[in-house]
Amino acid sequence: MTQEPLVREAEVAAFRDAVLTKLTYAVGKDPDHAFDHDWFEAIALAARDHMVEHWMDHTRQIYRKGQKRVYYLSLEFLIGRLLYDSLSNLGLLDVAREALTELGVDIERIRLLEPDAALGNGGLGRLAACFMESMSTLGIAGHGYGIRYEHGLFRQAIVDGWQQEQTEHWLDFGNPWEFERPEVAYPIGFGGGVETVTDESGKSRQVWHPAETVRAIAYDTPVVGWRGRA
Predict the structure, then answer these.
(1) Domain residue limits at 108
(2) For the ranges 134-143, 161-170, 176-185, which has the lowest average pLDDT?
(3) Which pLDDT belongs to residue 196?
């Protein structure tokens, strides 16, 4: 079935206006002087608003009904590039393409700017990401817990016949899909040594003194399922 022309025009106009609003008030750029990456961020933020609407509605339903939730732990989440996937699942890909064409922006060029969040090393990471999208599609309340590596899977290059590992910089321009949760933070220790101490009752116990402690902060990235379920 095709959409009624007036409905389609309204959706295109709404998405176009949403992108322009994000570009102005979230990115802080004028359309005439915006770079491609500015457009990418504005488009992603406009799409994310649609994702959040589904996310919040579903979360409220889960709390009202007291439903159980699935918690999936994985060191790897190979979520890939989210722009095309999210717009497609929301049913907004063609709408976004038309809206951006009216603005003189080529979405095919813009989408290539999105870095691949290589938060892992293989098939298990991709499987974990698929689980998240599948649960979203089925309306199952789920949370995936992993590590938001500052530098993902390293890139490889051959220099003078030798392999060289190069740092992957997927966060150089930030990540418009995520929400930082600074109120959820934990100290994580590394290295150091263990000291045996005696308490007031004369009992011995071991105390770990880490050599380095980092502050781990939580981030939320909403995952949209097929036909906009989150």
Answers:
(1) 5-228
(2) 161-170
(3) 93
Distance CA 21, CA 30 (A): 10
Residue 139 region by backbone torsions, left for phi larger than 0, else alpha for psi between -120 and 50, else beta: left
| Whether this model's pTM surpasses 0.70 | yes
CATH number at residue 172: 3.40.50.2000
What distance in Å separates the CA atoms of residue 45 and residue 178, rounded to the nearest whole number?
A: 10
Residue 3, pLDDT above cutoff 70: no
122: tokens are 């293989």
Report how far residue 98's alpha carbon sits from residue 3's, in angstroms, rounded to the nearest whole number. Answer: 14
Pairing of strands 155-159, 142-145: unpaired
The one-character DSSP state at 162 is: E
Q: Is 202 helix (H, G, I), strand (E, B) or coil?
A: coil
Phi, psi of 206 (to 5 degrees): -105, 135
